[in-house]
Amino acid sequence: MTDNGLTLGQIDTSKPHTARMYDYYLGGKDNYEADHESADHVISLFPAIKVCARTNRSFMHRATRWLAQEAGIRQFLDIGTGIPTEPNLHQVAQSIAPDARIVYTDHDPIVLTHAQALLHSTAEGRTAYIQADVREPERILSAPELHETLDLSRPVALSLNALLHFVSDEFKPYEIVRRLLDALPSGSYLVLSHCTPDFAPETWAKLVEIYRNGGIPAQVRSRAEVQAFFAGLELVEPGVEVAHRWKPDEEAAASTVTDAEVSLWAGVARKP
């Protein structure tokens, strides 16, 4: 039995998992030896991976605040949730709009257990969790939890942060994003962040190899390839930008991190 109520038999601890490695980068404790080994290998080649992870969280917070405050969005579908790290997306959204509704999705059983324990909504709003893989969008879109929580006739922010670099081309990521967006009405938004080799191609080639050796179908993409996920949408200023440069708050503006350390393209766009 683990500390969070899951039996080890429910979790494959023999192979690294993206959510648990990400948790390790952020200094969390919900990870195992296989995750440590792969993550430490990544850190040895690219120590700034921790900067990348923290910058991604910061981007998610800023994008969520902008969507709730400036765009008036009250519904969020967050796929690839990862192990909850406070403040979570619903806490950010509901701090601005207490009636906001959020559906989280991830395919790791350990994320489900943490979600059940930690993802508590305001009284006015609501949160729900779906255990599903983004590579099976129909399963997400047909889930009762989705339709019980969100009204798909009203705008929804689709959050795909630090996720699609774990969906290699063989799984048709562009088609997946298009299918998810097709289910959402005009006025919805796509929020996306994605690791890139643009600033350090040789290093990222080695990092991708580490993930693939662990059974994770990693694939980093260029700015043009990331921008292609937003085809047909109206990009919010400043467009697809290195994550710490997307509408920076005081903390991000004061940061001394470099584009190469972040190595993460990010953007938000509206569906016409």
Largest sheet: 8 strands, mixed
Shape: globular
Could you spell the SSE succession in H and E letters? HHHEHEHEHHEHEHHEEHHE
Helix content: 25-40%
Oligomer: single chain
CATH architecture name: 3-Layer(aba) Sandwich
| Model regions low in confidence, pLDDT < 50 over at least 5 residues | 1-9
How many distinct domains? 1
The chain-level mean pLDDT equals 90
Structural class: alpha/beta
What does this structure look like?
By secondary structure, the protein is an alpha/beta fold. The chain has a single domain, classed as Rossmann fold. 40% of the residues lie in helices and 15% in strands. Strands 1, 2, 3, 4, 5, 6, 7 and 8 form an 8-stranded mixed sheet that branches. Helix 4 (89-96) links the parallel strand 1 (75-79) and strand 2. Helix 1 (18-25) packs across helix 2 (33-45), helix 2 runs antiparallel to helix 9 (201-213) and helix 3 packs parallel to helix 4. The longest helix has 21 residues, at 49-69. It is globular and about 45 Å long. Mean pLDDT is 90; it is low at 1-9.
